[in-house]
Batch of 2 targets.
Target 1
Amino acid sequence: LVKFYAPWCKHCKTLKPVFEELGSKVSHAGIGEIDATKNKVAAEKYGVKSYPTIIYKQDGVVGKYDGHRSMAGLTAFLDRLNAPACIDVKNISEMKEHSAFSAGVSFVLVLSPAAADPEQVNNIRTTFKDVSVKLKQHASFGILEVDLVTDAGSNLLSKYGPIALLKVEEGREP
């Protein structure tokens, strides 16, 4: 996590103690800052247009942090980045209960390997996991494998089919 700043920027000065505290308390991520007025090449490389701009890089994915600029906001963001990109769930409500994935929007891939082409299921699962790595800072991702034998499995199959992507939001049914 890198903060691009300008020495004259009031918002950057306000964020400075938060970033210093974050750097001293977080051991699972690299925390740094770059004076964008002195390092214009780096600022241009990451598309810095205003100050402060917070950039993250993980698993080849680079993006701008646009969340709350507080210790709690930044810590929650880093925890989210360090959580698994995609989890296996036993039911839809488990997605809401998982602590690292409790805020915002979640997507659940519902699969019934017994009711669909196994190669298609594997391709979709792989693609979904790849997407989850790239977008985990914005949403939560889970995979639910449905068994035809259980009542819950047959209910999901009759409602959504053998392969479905569900958007799960707080207070709304998928």
Target 2
Amino acid sequence: CKNQTRAFVDKVEAVRSRYDYIIFDCAPALSRTNSAAIGSSDLVILPVIPDKFSQHGLEQTLSEIKLVQKEVSHKIECKVVFNRFDAREATSVMYLGQVAANYKNIMFNTMIRTSADLKNSVAMSKDLFEDYRSTARSDIDELTREITDLTNFLAKNRKSSRSIESSKSISREG
């Protein structure tokens, strides 16, 4: 597993400077491929839906990320986004409260509300962002803005930490 993660990290590092963002959309499962993608990432976004199995999966995934982080030489930020939220459902509100209480330091402020708009736009081959009344459009837009602000912050920190590491290695050699 370490070799696969290292190979994946090396491939991403080889092209990282050519892109502003590299996005891996992984299946919600623990696998070698997902671990390799996680090891190549600066930020992992973990969607959680309002049910106890999703919360259990979140705990397992965060544990897996800690193991992967030990294999790679950089910090991997994790952020949780609450998905399929419906304020009309008591369980949705209950699970949002639990996730917010347990993971408040890594939770996005934006949550994605339940909406048929996304499914309908795909089925009808329509652009979701053309409908300004759509809650899905506004939620996704807001989350995108939040992610962009965070990744810009992480990129700045990553560059400064790399230049610190470079100066350390230069001073060790000299």
